[in-house]
Amino acid sequence: MKFLKYSLVALTVGNFAFAQNQKLTMAEAVNGLRSNLAPKSIVQFSWSDDGQSYIHYVKNAYLTTDVKSKKQDTLISLSQLNQNLGTAKLKSLPRINFVGQDKAYYVSGNKLTWLKKSKKTWTIGESITLGENNDNLQLLRDNKSLVYTKENNLFINQDGKEIAITNDQNKDILNGQAVHRSEFGIKGGIFAAPNSELIAFYRMDQSMVKDYPIIDWSVTPAVNTNIKYPMAGQKSHEVTLGVYDVKSNKTNFLKIDGDKEQYLTAISWSPDSKYVFVAVLNRGQNHMKLNQYDAKSGNFVKTLFEETNDKYVEPQNPMLFLPNSNTDFIWQSQRTGYNHLFHYNLDKGLVSQLTKGDWLVTEILGFNEKLKDIYFISTKETALERHIYRVNWQNQKMERLDKAEGMHQAVLSKDGSKIYDVYANATTPRVANIIHTNNLKSENILTSENPLKNYKRPEIKNLTLKADDGTDLYGKIILPTDFDPNKKYPTIVYLYNGPHLQLITNSFPASGNLWYEYMAQYGYIIFTMDGRGSSNRGLKFEQAVFRNLGETEMNDQLKGISYLKSLPYVDAQNMGIHGWSFGGFMTTSFMLKHPEIFKAGVAGGPVIDWNMYEIMYTERYMDSPKENPEGYAKANLLDKVQNLKGNLLMIHGAQDNVVVWQHSIDFLKSAVDKGVQLDYFVYPGHEHNVIGKDRVHLMQKVTDYFDEHLKK
Fold first, then answer.
1. Per the CB 3.0–4.6 Å rule, which of 44, 361, 585, 688 could disulfide with 57?
2. What is the pLDDT of residue 447?
């Protein structure tokens, strides 16, 4: 018996050791955190209207959980729905939108179906046919009016009756859709008044913008679709803001003065539905006015305040009125160098700056009127983490509400009494808690197991290097599994280093990317770092790249490269570099401007010439080509292709409408003209939405290229 017991123990230990040696597949490295390796989560979490319970989705059912008693009930299930659907049964439960305690709806195809609750039973209500190709659907606060777009026009549907709000025959005029290529925090083009009687909407005239061809090569013959793509220095589109009166079926346009190519963003309503507020930003993006307009007449009322900057102003968030106030609101601004909260009054102007310091607010969660508190997420502890705070709008008292390190996300209940806090860090896949804001007591509702516990994991070191001006630069180095400090390893630098993105955070997994770990399992060192120009470090950090994209970023990355070369286990003769989009631009820049460093580079969807990138983004960071010819010339890579010494693989999507294919095509032509050899791979689609098996295929191509050139 003793022998048998010993054998069982030995077998268990052996299996445990084997389990921890499991290697990632490429599919897991690319998509695993969204599929079989995703930490357990609470799906589609939302608070009930009274904040006493929460709703979430499980397989083919929505559950409701009482916070106090922990009692859980099925709110609605697929089987319940199908009992009411006769022969037209659903195969799976669609996403259901709950409107109060006893009303909900779902959209399937071109049909919206209402659900009604009687006691504990949900029944099928009215179905509304929205017509083909409807998009941007919104249910107004009256819980009956639907507003949506079809092709380039805007419609409202009340009691099943559809009315056209706009009727533009010119397909180059778009109504109710996002404008300015979704820069400036713009997510949509429909802005309904709180009383549901008025609807503001964007009208974008693109007819003056040159056509740009996007060709679908997957069919024979190939099919061309022209898009409007305003490039830096060229003619831009013209945007106006209409206000539709539901009762009179009439539209007035706000009388917004200024250059027709200016930007209109941060659209918001006064709670009494009398006024519309618009952040009006000049095309040069260095002067913003927050203007107030009368909603009925469209007349200009006044400018509440102005913001200027010698480089750029970037309004990204609409004003938020304090609870039950038509006069007091919160405005987010980077005017002090970091995004902070400012309390304003329509009549008195600035009341107070509510948050201050060398850190920034990243998101406002909402309010607690009873406590006079504003809840928000910020980088106050460190730029590598996000934490939950509240600040009192009367006395400016501020406190942190969570306790654990890491990246926190949160959902505040409508009354501000409870916070759903979900976080992760380097060693914690996912934890969800409910925080009671009256006493800050926290109760756990989810702790996920580590989905990577059976995999062979690399050692990951967090680094802080110094830029040439002394600024801290945060990075990570991922060492090969079975690391031997006496060996030399091929090394890959992965980078983005552009605005509006941060790679290095205290999140799960600690590496930041399972592809890094995949490469580490096959003998690579991976290095990644956020240089100046990256997001969430304040304006000085971001604006260090102004008018010279690629230069300061490269200087910072060179600090990382110098560090790598100082390590005895880094094979400096076999170094590679890789990045997508802005990271593709940086990769190509390095291969041409510092050709002696990297033996191989893979540039995905790279910007090659900033003259061919969109106005809004490019002119913010580079000014126009006419204003900054030296900066554009320095960043242009078409006349530097002859410098290439290493092996460069350029990957681009033929239908990429963000970084258009012409960047790579022109670069390829320049290489041919100058007798420079490079490798090229084109695929259908575009880099910004390639998912699933297609993304796996692309990353296998990247990996194979590094294997070929760095492991010889």
1. 44
2. 98
Contacts 24+ apart (CB under 8 A), 144-152: 145/196, 145/246, 146/112, 147/176, 147/190, 147/192, 147/199, 148/176, 149/175, 149/176, 149/177, 149/189, 149/190, 152/177
pLDDT at position 19 is: 58
Alpha-carbon torsion (667, 669, 670, 672), positive or negative:
positive
Where does the pLDDT of residue 16 fall: very low under 50, low under 70, confident under 90, or very high at 90 and above?
A: very low
Round to whole Å and give the CA distance between 361 and 378. 4
Task: Please tell me what DSSP assigns to residue 136.
Answer: E
Residue pair 374/382 in contact by the 8 Å Cβ criterion: no
pLDDT tens for each residue of 140-170 = 999 989 999 999 999 999 988 999 999 999 9
* CA pair distance 588, 591, nearest whole angstrom: 5
pLDDT at 87 over 70: no
- Cβ burial of 609 (10 Å; 0-12, 13-18, 19+) is buried
Kindly report, residue by residue over 512-542, the tens digit of the pLDDT.
999 999 999 999 999 999 999 999 999 999 9
Could you tell me if 516 and 491 are in contact, meaning their C-beta atoms sit under 8 angstroms apart?
A: no
Q: For residue 101, what pLDDT is reported?
A: 78
CA–centroid distance for 519 within its chain: 26
Residue matched to tokens 């190939």 = 222
> What are phi and psi for residue 493, nearest 5 degrees?
-95, 120
Q: How far apart are CA 677 and CA 259, in angstroms?
A: 46
Q: Where are the beta strands (DSSP E) in 559-709?
A: 570-580, 600-604, 647-653, 679-683
Cα distance between residue 487 and residue 627, in whole Å: 51
Catalytic residue list: 581, 656, 688
Residue 24 is predicted with a pLDDT of 98
Helix, strand, coil shares of the chain, percent, nearest 5, are: 20, 40, 45
126: alpha, beta or left? (left if phi > 0; alpha if psi -120 to 50): beta
11 pLDDT more than 50:
no
Residue type present at position 164 = A
* 3-state secondary structure (DSSP) of residue 610: helix
The H-or-E segment that residue 408 falls in is strand 407-412
What is the band of 80 on the pLDDT scale with cuts at 50, 70, 90? confident
